[in-house]
Amino acid sequence: MTWKHWRRVRRAVQVAALALYLTLLLAALHTRAVFPLADLFFRLDPLAGLASMLAARAWIPRMGLALITVALALLVGRVWCGWLCPLGTILEWVRFPRAAARSVDPRWRTVKYVLLVATVAAALLGSLTFLVFDPITILTRTMTTAVLPALNYAITAVERALYPVEFLRAPLYAVETVLRGPVIPVDQPVFRQNVLLGVVFVGVLALNVFADRFWCRYLCPLGALLGLLSKLSLIRPKPDATCNRCGVCAGICRLEAIEPRREYEVIASECTVCLDCMAGCPQSGYGFALHRKPAEWEPYDPSRRQVLASLGATAAGVLLLRTGAHRKAPHPTLIRPPGVNDEDNFLSRCIRCSQCMKVCPTSALQPALTEAGLEGLWSPVLVPRLGYCDYGCKACGDICPTDAIPTLTLAEKRQEVLGLARVDRDRCLPWAYDTPCIVCEEMCPVPEKAIWLEEAVVTDGDGQPMLIQRPYVVRELCIGCGICETKCPMEGEAAIRVLRA
Length: 501
Fold this sequence. Notes:
Number of helices: 24
Distance between the termini: 65 Å
Structural class: mainly alpha
CATH topology of the domain at 417-501: Alpha-Beta Plaits
Shape: elongated
Strand content: 5-15%
Number of strands: 10
CATH architecture of the domain at 417-501: 2-Layer Sandwich
CATH class of the domain at 417-501: Alpha Beta
Helix content: 40-55%
Strand order of the largest sheet: 1-4
Radius of gyration: 27 Å
């Protein structure tokens, strides 16, 4: 096959990889049978694997598949970036005319190495905060909190608008049967910060205005890690004896990974093996060659001084975070998923992948903003007013790729205490307004009922005595699942709230 045919193969692999990513993303919403594969792309992510293992001080078997990506990089370079990464594929498809200007200083490539050093250094100190910059994390978080909820809402709105047209009802029903469940959720998911997270993702795409695949070139810490490994790759693109130095390849390369000043040498750490140079060369002067020596260091590759400065700044930052006020006085609404009993251990394993939020059937798990300080940014917290921890569900622990949320049996999960419910007697209908309401007691899933009712005689509007039942929480029985707060009929803040135990 010619290089043009191989380039078509690459594009087919890109489409297949993105389709697989989306399939696993959607399938995990509706069936637990795919959980062993639902986090496949995170398992193949060497940055997430390296950082989580360093932070946890332990080998995490589920992340061992990342060694496949490492092996590919050591063999043929950044194949992951050019063939498999779903975010890289999307960024390759998003093109702007101005990107051809190539006006960005190459020294900006150093930024991705700074982020890589910061991520690894923070992981050594037990913090995974910088994994918010991991490309698979960025894409999954955006799909979970912004894209899929918006898609579901849009489809539902269109169906409602068209349903009154009688002859459209049958096809709408057919479409609904196909989409509802397998593709879009039955219930509308709701996430706070969805606009913020969506804007961050749009910003990543918009950076392509300045240069093609700007994120991949200048900011991606995973790309930086694979770039360093690619310097050791055995097989790399190289111009051969037929090359007449016409410069076509340098003009074609979207990542500026070909250096004209060095006889059109391919920069191994920047090349994503896209094959564009080979397919576009009029002389067929490019091919793969075996290299026994590491690629030379580039001017924008990290210097010893830059590495030491990044290490020092990261260490200082992590130490400051660890001595913040949130450590001594945790926020009362900081409620973690079931089984998470040690905050330090949790933060040293949570890679902010949002997988748990994706599979939570009630949208109870939300990305944290300030509850856990900057150190816990976008890690999962339970927000009972938006959703409750389903008594019959343990999906978050099943899908967590790093065991930050432990895998529990359903019986074990039902014994986990997440928080403690408290009745606000100044807002509760029976307590404050002598209005009958026992919703919280009815909803409580604990077999013995953690909410009991106290009977009292009050005077109704006609001045007649009336028996009313007032709820109160039995502390020893409450597991803090939050369904009482979710279902409380009071507008605004619930009259019963679950707070940190």
